[in-house]
What does this fold into?
Amino acid sequence: MAASLLLALLFWQWRPMPAVIWEVEQPVFRVALNGLFFVGWGVALYSSAIIDHFDLFGLRQVYLHLRQRTYSYPPFVVKSLYRIVRHPLMVGLLAGLWFTPTMTIGHLLFSILLTGYILIGVLFEERDLARHLGSEYALYRDATPMFVPSLPSRKSHSAAT
It folds into this structure.
């Protein structure tokens, strides 16, 4: 509730800051940046679907509560993009924030603040996952990079799944 109220306040008090920091005018590079922007948001959406965005956003918990059923955590499974990076949802969000052909001061401020929020949030998430999942997550964390995608080796892949 507090987050929603703060977000409403932010929307209400937001003032445009249209001064341009950078603008890519070369058509090929504009298309490339726009493509990376949309790929980033697609990766974020796909990543949330992989881990069940209904559970991620609390909708599954509410549904089970309304049906008077007990909530159980989903099992830890490493699949798809989560095999090459631990936080593909955040990588997608960061790409969606930063890959833009036109960066205004307002967009830059928003991107910097949200990037900081994401980095701090991931630290808390990592701590909670390690506490909840124990050695299973520790093996995954040791074998899979946090943000910068890489192809997993056979050894690291089999250790994480």
In short: Residues 27-160 form one domain. The two ends are 36 Å apart (CA to CA). Residues 156-161 have pLDDT under 50 and may be disordered.
